[in-house]
Amino acid sequence: MEFVFFILFYASIISMVIVLAFLPTIVALYRKHPDRLWIFVVNFGLGGFPLFWILTLVWAFKSNWLIKNLVGTYDEQNLSNNTK
After folding, report:
1. Which residue, 2, 28, 32, 42, could crosslink 60 as a Cys pair with Cβ 3.0–4.6 Å?
2. Residue 69: is its pLDDT beyond 70?
3. For residues 1 and 24, is the Cβ–Cβ distance under 8 A?
């Protein structure tokens, strides 16, 4: 019985660590961030370093409205020109 408790306890600890490590990626996916692929790449490659983990978390929480208004206007103009 102790062995089962030991396995379940450490499996839950490992699961929580994995979720915490990939929190920036989870946030970016949930918010449908336009750079979610790059957030995952940076989080996967450099997420073990606290500085990069914090930077990717801030990047994931960055406002989509700001990104859409700064970058989206150029994309919308190109799309409207290409469809004509």
Report:
1. 28
2. no
3. no
Question: Is it the case that residue 36 has pLDDT exceeding 60?
Answer: yes
Any idea what DSSP says for residue 35?
Answer: T
Place of tokens 């020109």: 81
- 50 pLDDT band (50/70/90 cuts)? very high
Question: Which two tokens mark 48?
Answer: 């073990």
Q: Is residue 34 within 8 Å of 63, Cβ to Cβ?
A: no
Give 34's DSSP letter: T
Q: What is the 3-state secondary structure (H, E, C) of 12-59?
A: HHHHHHHHHHCHHHHHHHHCCCCCHHHHHHHHHHHCCCHHHHHHHHHH
